[in-house]
Amino acid sequence: MGAFFPHLLWLQIVIGLITSAAMLAAIRPLLVRKLHHSGELKTGSQHVIGRTGVVVKEIHPDGGGSIKLNGELWTARPYDEVSTFPPGTRVEVMSIDGATAVVYPVGDPFGHQFPELDQTPSKDTDPPRT
Prior knowledge:
Blueprint: H1 9-36, E1 52-57, E2 65-69, E3 72-78, E4 90-97, E5 100-105, H2 115-118
Parallel strand pairs: 3-5
Antiparallel strand pairs: 1-2, 1-4, 2-3, 4-5
């Protein structure tokens, strides 16, 4: 524009402002959607909460245990004062205490039985045989 109308500086400024406003109006909705609808960004050690790992050194209430989590070795302790987890146990990170992962076992950690799920039909409920 400046090559055609070098003496009309005000026209160049107006056209520049209009172009900038149009470009901003075109790209702003995309940026807002991207910024506000992406997941929560977890930084530092908070990104491992909820992830599962495997015990590599026995975890006991006195400390000294460790887990392998996302390819990294973490010191770990049980979530309570009485649990002990042997090596090979799958655990989930409940929280981070300093540089130590507070973990609990994944699956059926306490050996709970659910007899209502394993019930076999009793003789009273079997259909009569003919």
